[in-house]
Amino acid sequence: MEEIERLLNWAEIKGVTVDGIGPKPLPGRGIGIVATRALKTGEHILTVPINMLRTLKNTPQPILHSLKGSTVHAILATSLCLETDHEFATWRAVFPTEDDIRTCMPLSWPSELQHLLPPNARALLAKQRTKFDTDWALVTAAYPSISRTQFLYSWHLVNSRTFYHVTRATEKLPKADHMVLQPVADLFNHSPDGCKVAFDDASFTITTTHPVEQGDELFIRYGSHSNDFLLVEYGFTLPGATNPWDEICLDDHLCPLFTKRQKAELEETGFWGRYMLDSETACYRTHTALRMLCCSYTQWRDVLDGLRDEDVDRDAVNDKLVQVLRACDKDLRSKLTELERCTAGNEVSRSTLRERWLQMGELVTATIVRLQ
């Protein structure tokens, strides 16, 4: 792609060091970074000078003045909307298109498709929507010429392509505001075993953590995130078996089983809600809640107080967990059927959502098999 060549030429002129890697279009996944030669562990494959970062510090003063009190997220997104520099156009040319963003980002999906998101993803989306609405209210008041569609596109770009960065000048800001954009580095896709990313006062450096064959894709690690989080924040999921941090929420199927008195007791002891299941086990909160359904109140309290071995009730708790998981599995199948009938959005969006439900189904089924 000519856009990639222009980006690399521009970046290298500006002091970006690219060694043994290069951007490449990847079918169905946009642009990624691949090895142009065999790489060893510990090689510095990309160095981006600090002066190449898009930060709060180098945002035009009129924007900072107009958006005083806004989040860095909103300020950077507004800066992208108003950017006219011809050099930046070279960088912008490799960004995902507005159609790409509308397709992959749930916040831009039709409401009918958003309704079919898994419960935990819907909760994450609700929080994201609140953040966006707060930012948009300030931006549209200051810049009425910016359309909501334009700002949402730029807001998504900032949300999905920024890196963590903090300086003495920004260290007192909330952690969520420690964000910068940087060229070339923002083309790396995510993997749990991705390359190491580090920064100092001079530059950002990306370093290999294991050998890589020529032609293989290289990744960085966005964080220890579940697939629900990856879907809502970045617009993709990983195959379930490749994401060690994937988990699903069982609240919809477990919470209704408790009486008002039991719920009050769980709330008082800090064990109400957020019942999570990962590929290895249900969380301790889940086991504690399930034990309330299997034991007398006195026995349940004795476990909390360390007077009763929790393993005594293990089989009963596992049996109850299987019942919850069977209800969850039934709901999963229902949602997949509903999704098959859905015509909202486009096929790529629906396929992404379908894949997420299937991942959850595999996790539930594997747990049931393991417990029986």
The topology string of helices and strands comes to HEEEEHHHHHHHEEEEEHEHHEHHHH
- Share of residues in strands: 5-15%
On the 0 to 100 scale, the average pLDDT is 95
CATH topology type of the largest domain: set domain protein methyltransferase, domain 1
List the defining traits of the structure above:
set domain protein methyltransferase, domain 1, SET_dom_sf, two-stranded antiparallel sheet, seven-stranded mixed β-sheet, SET_dom, 15 helices
Per-chain topology:
Layout: H1 2-13, E1 17-18, E2 21-25, E3 31-35, E4 44-49, H2 61-66, H3 72-82, H4 86-92, H5 98-104, H6 111-114, H7 119-142, H8 148-161, E5 163-164, E6 179-180, E7 189-199, E8 203-207, E9 217-220, H9 227-234, E10 247-249, H10 251-254, H11 260-269, E11 276-278, H12 284-294, H13 297-304, H14 314-341, H15 347-371
Parallel strand pairs: 7-9
Antiparallel strand pairs: 1-4, 2-3, 3-9, 4-8, 5-6, 7-8, 10-11
InterPro entries: SET_dom (IPR001214), SET_dom_sf (IPR046341), SETD3_SETD6_MTase (IPR050600)
Protein name: SET domain-containing protein
Domain SET: 19-223
